[in-house]
């Protein structure tokens, strides 16, 4: 099967490489073109623009940073819209808000193309090992046509109905994850400041009812101030912001998420936006130093 792939950041690079290693023909494009080189060394072709990739491939996947990037790649000069047409499918796997997804859907379908949103749950390592959870919504026929690729990229795919539902599900999941990361950071700090060994806390948590892969995976690195980015903090803050907007629209009070968003904003203001989202832990250390 041949696919196009737009956006070779942490996730896009891992996902497109995975497709390539599993026998797919892949044509890649990235805004910073040099990031295509590693993929090309493994057999990928390059498209010089998003339009060129769409022209070449029947199905094209995008994995871009945020709503502005997702819209730019579709609507701007040399963008997806210039070549999309009947018989071609566009799948946006970026995490965006439902409104952005609906705008892209309208643009693509107005030219006769098929559109599927398919954000993913799972980070760099699940992307490398094909263990993502795919949250698709939109054109069911495109979902079925893309299943061979989804089977490589993910451990489970959900079809959630109309466009917007995938984005909503992803934002709800990441709102919970971001809030959990803040509670975890406060717990580690409280254990330390009250005279406990935070490593003991990790062991206790791991044996109880709130054990989870995130605490287990991130905890030891956080205690060593290691925030090598798997999920960049700036993207987690974007997801909190978009989830809070969804809460506004639906009159859902979300005080825990709102406080977590403030902590992520604080971390961004400290220059930690490109670090892993677990670097929000550092905001609590600043409080210690200033007291
Ligand atoms: N990392 C993770 O654990 C996960 C991330 N996600 C979501 O996946 C998406 C990608 O994440 P990730 O790979 O980590 O992010 P990165 O920051 O590593 O990569 C972002 C990608 O978007 C491109 N981009 C940014 N702005 C523009 C623009 N204006 N025009 C064109 N391209 C642009 C970048 O291009 P360039 O290289 O030129 O900067 C790069 O290819 C995000 O929506 C994120 O929320 C979802 C699940 C897990
Ligand atoms: O969006 C991030 C993730 O880990 O899922």
Order of helices and strands: EHEHEHEHEHEEHEHEHHHHHH
Secondary structure category:
alpha/beta
What's the structural domain tally? Answer: 2
How far the N terminus sits from the C terminus, by CA atoms, comes to 59 Å
Radius of gyration equals 20 Å
Figure out the total of helices: 13
Given as residue ranges, the uncertain stretches (5+ residues, pLDDT < 50) are none
Number of strands: 9
CATH-defined architecture of the largest domain: 3-Layer(aba) Sandwich
CATH topology of the largest domain: Rossmann fold
Which geometry do the CA atoms define? Answer: globular
Looking at CATH, the homologous superfamily of the largest domain is NAD(P)-binding Rossmann-like Domain
CATH class of the largest domain: Alpha Beta
Hey, roughly how much beta strand do the residues contain? 5-15%
Q: What composes the largest sheet? A: 9 strands, mixed
Q: Which bin fits the share of residues in helices?
A: 40-55%
Mean pLDDT: 97
């Amino acid at each position: 099967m041949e696919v196009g792939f737009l956006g070779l950041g942490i996730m896009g690079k891992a996902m497109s490489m995975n497709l390539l290693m599993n026998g797919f023909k892949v044509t890649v494009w990235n805004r910073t073109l040099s990031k295509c080189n590693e993929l090309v060394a493994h057999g990928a072709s390059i498209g010089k623009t998003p339009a060129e990739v769409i022209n070449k491939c029947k199905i094209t996947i995008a994995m871009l940073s945020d709503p502005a990037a997702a819209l730019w790649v579709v609507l701007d000069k040399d963008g997806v819209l210039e070549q999309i047409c009947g018989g071609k499918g566009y799948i946006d796997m970026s995490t965006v808000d439902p409104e952005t997804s609906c705008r892209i859907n309208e643009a693509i379908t107005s030219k006769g193309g098929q559109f599927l949103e398919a954000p993913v749950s799972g980070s760099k390592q699940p992307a490398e090992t094909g263990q993502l959870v795919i949250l698709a919504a939109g054109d069911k026929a495109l979902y079925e046509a893309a299943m061979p690729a989804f089977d490589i990229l993910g451990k489970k795919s959900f079809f959630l109905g109309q466009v917007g539902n995938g984005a909503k599900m992803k934002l709800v999941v990441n709102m919970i994850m971001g809030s959990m990361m803040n509670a975890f950071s406060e717990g580690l700090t409280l254990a330390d400041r009250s005279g406990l060994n935070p490593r003991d806390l990790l062991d206790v948590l791991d044996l109880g009812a709130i054990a989870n892969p995130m605490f287990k995976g991130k905890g030891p690195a956080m205690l060593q101030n290691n925030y090598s980015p798997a999920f960049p903090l700036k993207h987690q803050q974007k997801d909190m912001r978009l989830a809070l907007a969804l809460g506004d629209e639906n009159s859902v009070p979300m005080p825990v998420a709102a406080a977590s968003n403030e902590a992520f904003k604080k971390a961004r203001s400290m220059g930690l936006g490109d670090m892993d989202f677990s670097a929000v832990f550092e905001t609590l250390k600043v409080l210690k130093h200033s007291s």
